[in-house]
Design brief:
- There is one protein chain.
- Helices cover about 75% and strands about 0% of the residues.
- It has eight helices and no strands.
- It has helices at about 15-30, 40-45, 55-85, 90-105, 115-125, 135-155, 160-165, 170-180.
- Helix 2 (about 40-45) packs across helix 6 (about 135-155) and helix 3 runs antiparallel to helix 6 (about 135-155).
- The N and C termini lie far apart (about 40 Å).
Amino acid sequence: MEEKKFKLPKIGMRIIKTLISCLIVALVYHYLLDGRNPCFACIGAVYGMGARYKDGFHSGFNRFVGTLIGGMMVIPFYYLCYTDPFGIPPEIYMVTGLFFVIYLNLLFGANNAIQPGTVVYFVVMYTQPWENYVGYTIARVIDTGVGIIVSLIISRLFPSQWDKNEKTRISDAFRHWKQLQHK
């Protein structure tokens, strides 16, 4: 039996571009947005970076669509859970909202957006105080989009060898995303 030798992974351009994207996001949030928390924008930046532009676009677009749908659904269902206007247990409102998050993603063909959609839904539903849940939700969607956009710009400025060889265009990435959603 041949013994495999441990080999450290190579530090490639994807890692470097991801670090640059997160650094830019953190600097913008710290210096231009008065110390605003860059957490979700940095997460969006990681999702928006792929080995190829179309991979980052696919992952980032799913993250954004899911976050947007989850955010849109949590606002009314959070209200229903915490005001209980019809005398229904809050868990029924919660699971009804969850149904809509999942179903709307499926309806739009964004199957891979279900997980990020449910993450924002539950984070808002179970961690945000009444006074802040709408503003937090809107900020969360915007921050996710900012991070993704920064990574996609960095990917376009510093294309991978695959992107150079394939001469990848943004329209190709969107077409690729649509094809993957319908599989």
